[in-house]
């Protein structure tokens, strides 16, 4: 009987389609009918005195630990005197006869085969078929049995007892018949684990069981359930955060938490979300950045602080932008932007090496249908002086007084000439940002620092010590997108108040992304902020690069989605 089960599934490798007999999954049924049949099954079980949702099942071992523990067993070897109990979700059911069933049981992305035969079951033979006919693909079950390998070498647990723990009432998307192996940035069909993908290697979503993006993002639990590779995207994201946290902790940074709701939206140029506090009867703003609070902590004597958390910007979203995103910001007393550039190189090169085993990754920058590009995180990173490069690379002769009408008109004319779109209001800062994106950012595939931004673009950055009108600021671009933003912090309260007032004039002219005047922050600066370097990085974009994701929603477990229309 064991040989028959193996032939049916080639030793459990899933190369042949699963068979649906009278006790099969019934997935040829209409989904609505399937759901109704499952509800009837629940009623039937309860009428027979069986609770389909038991409160507790004692597991002795996880599926991953089970596979590791018994991996050395030889083909046909059985440990009849050993009893193990484990639980997981049934992702495949194969029926040999009314007395022999095979299941693929998954737990935390790891699979083990369950062989359930009437001859070694503790359930009476008359009840055996009835017990197993209830189980469908997607059900969570508990297994009590002994370890062994089938005659063809498939590591299995031979079930003496199977307990239904939580039935799946809906049909799952159809299972693919093959497995996937990532090789040199591509995915090929082979006899290997379906979730063999590792960070830094290209992914192929065509190998997914569930492909529809809307369903995947709206029902992430279903995506995780059937697309086993997806869990590694979020494990990689978690490892990115863990690496940053460990890196900063080892350098005596203190992790802190700052308010999510604020009286004034500050710390970045962005349009905020507004909420309302009922008890205080006042509007508050969801934070767009934690910067101003963190610098106040440095004023208070916490010389090295950082925060990893959510930020909210009430703006459009596209493949690389989400209105709700995760960032890390740190502030380091007695450091400047030169120190932070070196630290950025150390963080990113170390992170990529730890997660991928190399400082080079493959990324499908031009879509999954085109070959991946290579991105090299090996330091040192290229540095582009913004204003110098706009002159030498783009051939622009921007008036030196950027606050003048002449400069604004020149930049507006440049945008029109090169077809660079800048939505109103066309302030000098916004025009410069768009022009820089067109001419400079587009050249930044490998990690590249664009440095020394004009003061008009950087209201919180300190003036450059040798170049008038500029600041000691850098942005790091990878694959043409901003990943980090950092600067030597402006700590002169008089200049900071003046910069805020300039931002206020921009806001009054219609720029709703300009910063508001924060008197509380200016007062804190008056107590003395030491020379400080401040740094911010978008976690989501780094996760996108390391998981070969072209859409930011791929690395957000529950991305913001438009409401579904009824019908």
TrEMBL record:
Q: Where is the signal peptide?
A: none
Instruction: List the GO biological process terms.
Output: lysyl-tRNA aminoacylation
Question: Lipid metabolism among the record's keywords?
Answer: no
Species the sequence originates in: Triticum aestivum (Wheat)
Cellular localisation: Cytoplasm
Q: Which UniProt keywords apply?
A: Aminoacyl-tRNA synthetase, ATP-binding, Cytoplasm, Ligase, Nucleotide-binding, Protein biosynthesis
Q: Where is this region: Disordered?
A: 1-31
Q: What protein does this entry describe?
A: Lysine--tRNA ligase
**Pfam families (UniProt xref):** tRNA-synt_2 (PF00152), tRNA_anti-codon (PF01336)
* Top-level EC class: ligase
Kindly state which reaction or reactions the protein catalyses: tRNA(Lys) + L-lysine + ATP = L-lysyl-tRNA(Lys) + AMP + diphosphate
Checking HAMAP family in the record gives: Lys_tRNA_synth_class2
The similarity comment for this entry is: Belongs to the class-II aminoacyl-tRNA synthetase family.
Supply one GO CC term from the record: cytoplasm
Can you name one GO molecular function term for this protein? ATP binding
* Entry-linked Gene3D superfamilies: Bira Bifunctional Protein, Domain 2 (3.30.930.10), Nucleic acid-binding proteins (2.40.50.140)
Q: Which CDD domains match?
A: LysRS_core (cd00775), LysRS_N (cd04322)
InterPro entries in the record = Aa-tRNA-synt_II, aa-tRNA-synth_II, aa-tRNA-synth_II/BPL/LPL, Lys-tRNA-ligase_II, Lys-tRNA-ligase_II_bac/euk, Lys-tRNA-ligase_II_N, Lys-tRNA-synth_II_C, NA-bd_OB-fold
Q: Just give the chief location class.
A: cytoplasm
Enzyme Commission number, as recorded: 6.1.1.6
Domain of life from the UniProt record: Eukaryota
Aminoacyl-transfer RNA synthetases class-II family profile domain: from which residue to which, for each copy? Answer: 234-563
């Amino acid at each position: 009987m064991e040989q028959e089960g193996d032939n049916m599934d080639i030793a459990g490798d899933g190369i042949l389609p699963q068979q649906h007999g009278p006790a099969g999954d019934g997935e040829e049924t209409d989904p609505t009918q399937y759901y109704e049949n499952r509800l009837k099954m629940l009623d039937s079980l309860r009428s027979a005195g069986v609770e389909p949702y038991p409160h507790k099942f004692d597991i002795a071992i996880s599926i991953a630990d089970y596979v590791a523990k018994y991996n050395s067993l030889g083909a046909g070897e059985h440990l009849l005197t050993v009893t193990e109990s484990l639980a997981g979700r049934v992702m495949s059911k194969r029926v040999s006869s009314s007395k022999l069933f095979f299941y693929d049981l998954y737990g935390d992305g790891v699979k083990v085969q369950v062989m359930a035969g009437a001859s070694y079951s503790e359930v009476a033979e008359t009840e055996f078929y009835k017990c197993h006919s209830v189980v469908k693909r997607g059900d969570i079950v508990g297994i009590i049995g002994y370890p062994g390998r089938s005659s063809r070498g498939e590591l299995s647990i031979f079930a003496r007892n199977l307990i239904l723990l939580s039935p799946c009432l809906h049909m799952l998307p159809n299972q693919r018949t093959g497995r996937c192996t990532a090789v040199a940035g591509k995915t090929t069909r082979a006899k290997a684990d379906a979730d063999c993908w590792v960070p830094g290697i290209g992914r192929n979503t065509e190998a997914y069981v569930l492909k529809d993006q809307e369903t995947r993002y709206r029902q992430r639990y279903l995506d995780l359930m059937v697309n086993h590779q997806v869990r590694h995207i979020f494990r990689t994201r978690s490892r990115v955060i863990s690496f940053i946290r460990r890196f900063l902790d080892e350098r005596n940074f203190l992790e802190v938490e700052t308010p999510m709701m604020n009286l004034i939206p500050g710390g970045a140029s962005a349009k905020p979300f507004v909420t309302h506090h009922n008890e205080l009867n006042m509007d508050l703003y969801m934070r767009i950045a934690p910067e101003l609070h963190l610098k106040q902590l440095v004023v208070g004597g916490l010389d090295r602080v950082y925060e990893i958390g959510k930020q909210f910007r009430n703006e459009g979203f596209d493949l690389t932008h989400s209105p709700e995103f995760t960032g890390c910001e740190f502030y380091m007393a007695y450091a400047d932007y030169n120190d932070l550039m070196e630290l950025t190189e150390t963080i990113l090169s170390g992170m990529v090496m730890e997660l991928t085993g190399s400082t080079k990754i493959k990324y499908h920058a031009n879509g999954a249908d085109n070959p991946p590009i290579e991105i090299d995180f090996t330091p040192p990173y290229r540095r582009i002086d913004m204003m110098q490069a706009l002159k030498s690379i783009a051939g622009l002769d921007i008036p030196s007084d950027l606050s003048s009408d002449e400069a604004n008109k020149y930049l507006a004319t440049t945008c029109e000439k090169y077809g660079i779109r800048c939505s109103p209001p066309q302030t000098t800062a916004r025009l410069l940002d768009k022009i820089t994106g067109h001419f400079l950012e587009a050249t930044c595939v490998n990690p590249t620092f664009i440095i020394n931004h004009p003061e008009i673009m950087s209201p919180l950055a300190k003036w450059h010590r040798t170049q008038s009108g500029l600041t000691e600021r850098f942005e790091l671009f990878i694959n043409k997108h901003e990943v980090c933003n950092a600067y030597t912090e402006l700590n002169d309260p008089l200049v900071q108040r003046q910069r805020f007032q300039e931002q206020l004039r921009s806001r009054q002219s219609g720029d709703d992304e300009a910063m508001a005047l924060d008197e509380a922050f200016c007062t804190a600066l008056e107590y003395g902020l030491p020379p400080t370097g401040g740094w911010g990085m978008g976690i989501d974009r780094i996760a996108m690069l390391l998981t070969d994701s072209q859409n930011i929603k791929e690395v957000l477990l529950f991305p913001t989605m438009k409401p579904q229309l009824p019908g």
